[in-house]
Amino acid sequence: MKAVILAGGLGTRLSEETTVRPKPMVEIGGRPILWHIMKIYSAYG
Q1: Could you tell me which of 15, 24, 30, 39 has the fewest CB atoms within 10 Å of its CB?
Q2: Domain parsing of the chain, residue ranges
């Protein structure tokens, strides 16, 4: 399976975190947002 993960945008609602790191790397529950997205995709093969 191939996927395109759209992670664009200014991240204004996450501005406190996105000044230090890119939005996909902001941590939620101790893991980056990108990790959570990839986990969901891996469930579908």
Answers
A1: 30
A2: 16-42
